[in-house]
Amino acid sequence: MSLDSLPIELLLECVELAVAVHPSPACIVAVNKRYYALAYNLLYAHPHIRSGRAILLFLRTPPVPPRSLSVTLAGGEVGSGQFRALAELFRRCVSRRDGAGKLMPTPFEMDELRLCMNITTRADADDTTLEALKLVNPRKLSWTGPDPPHHFSVAIVPAACTNLFARAARWTQLRSLHLANIAFPPPQELFAFPALRALEELYIGQATFFPVPALAVLVCTQDMGVLRSVRLVDCYVESIWGGRVRRGLIERVAAIWWETDGVDYAKCAREAGERVRRVRETVMCEARTERIEGGDRVADGMLILE
């Protein structure tokens, strides 16, 4: 039986699978007009970009907004304008007009954005303001470094961390946020997490200068009612030579935290226990990797840090 005889719903599933596994998926659109109509948007729906050059080549494709996008760049491909190119790619999607001739809303929605790459601190080498992240509204975002998991490295530098969360404040549908290999700003910069009202899951791994007070506020604020899971893996209060973040530390901070506007000390005392329970129900601190020597070492087989 020919595939052309299948109902359009089944044929669409076959074409979607073929686009995902074919070594040259562009060949599928060249089969005939029917396959072209089915595969055209699928071809650009879930691209996986593996080099800076591929980003530039992707800019030559039709401005079809991807449903998800993966960018995996080697550690050496840093400071070559990758984020600037991504901003141009997303800007083309934003400026695309729909069938009625209206401009698509800014930012455009994505199911998932996955980044595995480093970011430079040099503004002359790349867009350190992360303008690209201002142009999207993802449901899931993952940003990790390209190094092996056992290699503690920094992919998201402090300035990029600040700009990342400034952009995230605009993401109205973000459900899951996964960050690793991240250096938060030093304590004197008074970092604060934005209220991500739709966020359900937060994962932060291999982090230094982790802002414990900011996390306590994030978990306990009423705007974060749907947040049900916070996993902190190999997060350190300062450098990797200092102490790891333990849930007990977050509980102690949450117990003494209160709003500064119109302080009601009696109310704060009553609610301290509720905030501690909220932290215990939501936050899990884990140890996964160890230094060869020194640092805050954990007992053999100990994974959960309380």
TrEMBL record:
Superkingdom: Eukaryota
The name this protein carries in UniProt is Uncharacterized protein
Source species? Vararia minispora EC-137
Q: What is the lineage of its organism?
A: Eukaryota, Fungi, Dikarya, Basidiomycota, Agaricomycotina
